[in-house]
């Protein structure tokens, strides 16, 4: 008799849904508070606060519905053994088109193609409502339905191009891995991560957005001067047309070794009132680089991935595990899917720990920008971005600690003020 792995997974999924719903309720109550937090009184305008409050409450209502539907579908699929049924049907489909279902790679690709179609169908209503109702209602959505469809089609085509060779490689590695399977899998994923980090900004991202060099002028001069003072190997400075899809703003950097690039959203340039505010945001991002946060995060992710692959090698041949989920045979891709479900408790714990580390990094990057003399400009930029993005002004501390990878605005402003006070003392 198979051990009740499936029942344990379902139980934890439901318990986690209950726990996270409790946190969502706490956050919803915080969002409905009619007044600003004391530290933001006189800092955030009442008009922006009311707009932010309405936007956050709308997103919260949507989140409750989305999560309820998701847990219902996921538990139904597992409980009623939809996965083994669909694995069998995908094999029949392969046979019907004249291919060999005994070839595990072909069978797996057919299974994943069906899963992708299902995912697109079930996610589409939520994506449409989020984009064309909630985001549009609050003035953020800038894309047309045709641009939305075009992006979706491009994403599907990319999956069809990139997915098969990656899946085939993983199956092959598992088949020949032997006692060194965890090392081989990790090595492959490590190389794949480096490859994707290289080709994504150069080949994939331009398929969806237009990247143009930041024009000559005061802003460019100040960013280049700051980068040079920190010995940041800035090679290119781009502006991306984020405004074609949304009014939300951001900035980021990428590239290896001596070939770094910085990308500014055009909305960031539009929303900040002067160049120094934008430069303060870049100073914060450069702080992450100078303090090696990106390296530490990458190493942590790679270590966790290796540990996960090590765990997978221990259970991949467990007949009881597969039988508990309704499978008579032991397909490689199904083993990976089942394993991901069985380590859900560990994944939630690790996610929480990574958020704690990320929040600490954000405080350190803020302090780095402040030490460069950008404290007033960074405060102004943080407030401006909070207002323009209509981010939540009131947050529940439990919800924030569990979900947020970035500290709330109140905490960031307080940390900047505290560091100023310590310096004066």
TrEMBL record:
One of its GO terms (cellular component) is endoplasmic reticulum membrane. Gene3D superfamilies: Metalloproteases ('zincins'), catalytic domain. Its EC number is 3.4.24.84. CDD domains: M48A_Zmpste24p_like. It is a multi-pass membrane protein. Belongs to the peptidase M48A family. This is CAAX prenyl protease.
